[in-house]
Amino acid sequence: MINKNTIVIADADILVGLYFKNDVLHNKISDINRKFLATGIRIIFPNTAVAEGITTLHRKLSNSTAAALLIQHYKKRIFEVEYVDERIMQEATKFYSPVGSKKNTFFDAIVASVAKNLNADAVFSFDGWYKKIGFLLASDL
pLDDT tens-digit profile of 18-29? Predict the structure, then answer.
């Protein structure tokens, strides 16, 4: 049930989709984000997801403008960030498998670890891997 106590942990793909207007999920992510903000749902990004989002926008998508805007919003604390510590990193090793799919990165495992640590209600991502390891996706809320 969605309410103001609902917490979702967001993956880097959400930042990429929000800041890169040509992303195929931009409109869908923007709509869900607006809905969550309007209902008071807390959207929390691990700091590693912020770094991954900036890197993806700049390096993979060659969009320095979007990367710069994300950096600016991070510096202004526009969105909530959870800083990853050693305990979270150790927990992430339990989720990550280096022999698994190359699509499921250690960064994804960190998102899962933060979600578990904060008792999040869902993960804001469209990666089905999170469902496979027991998390609800935010789009299913």
Answer: 999 999 999 999
